[in-house]
Automatic annotation (TrEMBL):
Coiled coil: none
Gene that this polypeptide is encoded by: LOC104788040
Similarity-based family: Belongs to the MOG1 family.
Keywords: Protein transport, Transport
Name of the protein in question: Probable ran guanine nucleotide release factor
Top-level division of the source organism's lineage: Eukaryota
Protein species of origin: Camelina sativa (False flax)
Length: 202
């Protein structure tokens, strides 16, 4: 078990908070990030954790919603060899209900080959992607939490410069918390501190 240092991290100006390892750096300190996203990376392991606020997708049912978003992500990133590994049932999230309108969550895990930034297919890395979808129905918002964990780094990928190519060293062997646990922890500690973040819906 990892004894990694974790802390409560403010998101979206403190309107939301959640707990995850301190090794993840805020990307907005380095480059511009869209207003509806918070992006954190651990450059030493080429792992990333992304929080997104999206308009509620009424056409997507609660059952398998995280899998739907994972598929959508694979399409957006022009991924190859996408495989859905597992998906959860719908879980109630009582601490996130608004005006007695319940919130629910689903999770999904997949694997896919994707390139970094503007790199082409010849530089694709094999990654495991964890997605959690928190459906805040009271404020018409789908929260997406996505964690990327490299499995195999392509020597042509820009990631190879930072972490080396070949099979990625499992987190447990490096004394780090595995991404599966990182996303679980951030989900279980996810808290809305200011519902005004969601504008007119709130």
């Amino acid at each position: 078990m990892s004894s990694e240092l974790c802390s409560m991290r403010p998101l979206f100006g403190g309107a939301i908070s959640t707990v995850f390892p301190q090794r993840f750096e805020d990307v907005s300190d380095i480059r511009q990030v869209p207003d509806h996203q918070e992006v954190f990376v651990d450059p030493s392991r080429d792992e990333s954790l992304i929080f997104e606020l999206l308009d509620f997708k009424t056409e997507v049912g609660d059952i398998g919603s995280a899998s739907w978003f994972l598929n959508d992500l694979a399409r957006e990133q022009d991924a190859e060899g996408f495989q859905l590994i597992e998906q959860s049932e719908v879980i109630e999230a009582p601490g996130l209900s608004y005006r007695n309108i319940p919130a629910v969550a689903t999770t999904a895990i997949g694997e896919m080959a994707i390139s970094k930034g503007r790199q082409g297919r010849e530089a694709q890395n094999l990654v495991r992607v964890y997605v959690a979808n928190l459906r805040l129905k009271g404020v018409d918002t789908d929260v997406l939490v996505t964690a990327y964990e490299p499995i195999l780094i392509n020597p042509l990928s820009e990631s190879a410069d930072a972490v080396g190519s070949g099979l990625a060293v499992p987190a447990s062997q490096s004394g780090k918390m595995p991404m599966r646990d990182v996303i679980k922890q951030s989900l279980s500690t996810f808290k809305v501190n200011d519902w005004n973040l969601f504008g007119s819906s709130a």
